Amino acid sequence: MLSAYLRHHYPRPKLAQDTATRSTSSTIQAAPFKTFVYIGTLSFFLHPPAFLSACKEWAAGGMFSFWILSDLVIVVRGLTGRDIFYSKGMDFLSGYKLLNPQLKDFLPHTQLKEDQTWGPVLASFSRTGLLEKHYATVLNAIVACHESWGGQGSVDLFKSMNQMVFAISLPLCGCQHLASNPKTVATLINIFDRLDDGATPSALLFPWVPTPARVRRFLAGIQLYRMTKSLVEFERQRSDIDEEDPLQDLIKQNYPVSEVARIIASILFASVVNTANVFAWALVYLEHHAEWKARVLAEVATFLRENDLENSTSLVNAMAGVPLDVLDEKLPSIELVVNEVLRFQLGPFIRRNIGGDIVQDGVHIKNGAFIMFHAADLHHNPDIFPNPDRFDPERFLPEEVEGRKIHGTSFVGFGAGRHACVGKRLALLEIKMMLVLLVAKYDFTIADETGASLRRIPSPNVVQLFKLPEPERPVHIQYRARKGHSTY
Ligand code: HEM
C-alpha cells in the first residue's frame, strides 16, 4: 500500500527540467526526480533495478545522476562511461558500502592506509593452492550433496546449487573444521540466508526501524560471531599449523575475532553468490539450447574417458588425481557458456571517485561523487556483440575475443582493470568439478516448478543490484542416476 501511494505521488521520471533542490553543477543532466534532503531520490529506494531501467530509457543513452541520501550517484554510459569507470582513482569498496547494507556491516572495519585495499587479503583465500590442498574435501562436499538428493527426484536448482557451492567454499575459506559437520554447514547456510535477507537499498532508509528482517540479520550476525570465535579458538590451539593457511595468517596478525568473522563472511559471500547462480543459469541455458547441452555433455564424456575416470572404483579418488591444470584446459565449452550467461545476466557496478575531479568528453565528475556503470552498456552493444539477444557462446572463442580487442575492454563478466575478479579461476574450476560429477552420476533435465519443460528462459528477479539474480519463478533439476554410473 505504501509503495502504491509513493508511486502515485512520485511517478516515473519524465523529460523535464530538474526540480531537485540540489544541482550536480556538472555537464551531466541531473535527473528530474523528486529529491528529499534526508533520503535522496525516493523512487530509487522503492525498486532500484526498475528505477535504473526507467532512467536509462528516459536518458536515451545519456548519462544521468540521482541522490542516495546525501550522496550523488552519476550513471556513466557507453564507452566513455566505461573509460571513466575503469580509470585510476576509483575506490571499489566505498561504492558497495554505500548501497549494500549487508556489505556495510560485513566488510572489515580496520582502517587501511590510503593506497591499501582488502584485495590481497581476500585474494589469499582464493589461491588455487588451497583448492589443491582441499581438492578431495571439495569433491566429497559435492558428492555429499548428491547423496542427499538420492538416486532420482527433483530439487530447486538455484537453492541446491547455492548449498553445494556453500559446502565447497567453507573449506576454502579456512572453515574446514566447520565444513566436516553437516549440521554446522546447515546452520551456517541458514545464518547467511538471514544475513542476505532484506539486503536491499531500501534497508538504508530508516535504518533505526527494527523490521523483522533486520532483527533476524542482527541475531544471525551474533550467531556467526560466536561460531567464528570458536573456530578461531580451535585454530589457535591447532598444532599442525600450515604456513599457507590464510586464516592462520589473520590469526597470527592478531586481527580481532569480530574482524576475522567479517573477513570470512565477505569471502563466503563473494565466492558463493555468483558461482552458484552462474552455474545454475548455465544449466538453464543449456536445457534451452540442445546443441550446446549435447556439446558440453560430450566434452565431459571425453574428459571422463581420457582420464580413466569412467570405470574407476572411486570416482572422487580418481578425480582428485587429475591435476587442476588439466581441468583448466579441458571442458572449454562450459567456460564459453558461463561467459555468455554473464553477458546476459550481469548488472551494474559502482565506485567512488577519490582521485580528484574528472572531465572527459564533456562529462565532469567531481571528487567524492559515486559512479555507476551497467555491464549491459558493453554486453548488449550491437557494435561489440552483434545480434546481442542471441545466445551464442562461440562469441567467446579465442579468435572472437581477439577480434573484439579493437573496442578495448568489452566484456566485464569477471570485472576488469584493477578490481578484476580474484576468484575467476577458482570459480571455473568449481563449476567444472560440479559439472563432471553431475554428468558422471545423473541424467538430468531442467524444468519449471510443476515439472513441465521450460518454454523460454525464465525472467530474472533482479532484487539486489550487485548480485547475479535468480529467476522469478523457481526452476527445478530433475535427475535420475545413470545405469552403471561410476561409484563415488
Ligand atoms: C562465476 C563466479 C564469479 C563471478 C561471475 C565473479 C564476478 C566478479 C566481478 C564482475 C568482479 C568485479 C566487480 C566490480 O568491478 O565492481 C569481481 C570481483 C571480485 N571477486 Fe569475483 N566472481 C566470481 C567468483 C568469485 C570467487 C569464487 C571469489 C573468491 C573466492 C571471488 C572474489 C572476488 C573478489 C575478492 C573481488 C574483488 C577484487 C578486488 O577487490 O580487487 N569471486 N568478481
UniProtKB/TrEMBL annotation:
It comes from the Eukaryota. PROSITE patterns: CYTOCHROME_P450. Heme binds at C421. Gene3D superfamilies: Cytochrome P450. Its cofactor is heme. Keywords: Heme, Iron, Metal-binding, Monooxygenase, Oxidoreductase. Belongs to the cytochrome P450 family. PANTHER family: 24-HYDROXYCHOLESTEROL 7-ALPHA-HYDROXYLASE, CYTOCHROME P450 FAMILY 7. This is Cytochrome P450. It comes from Roridomyces roridus.
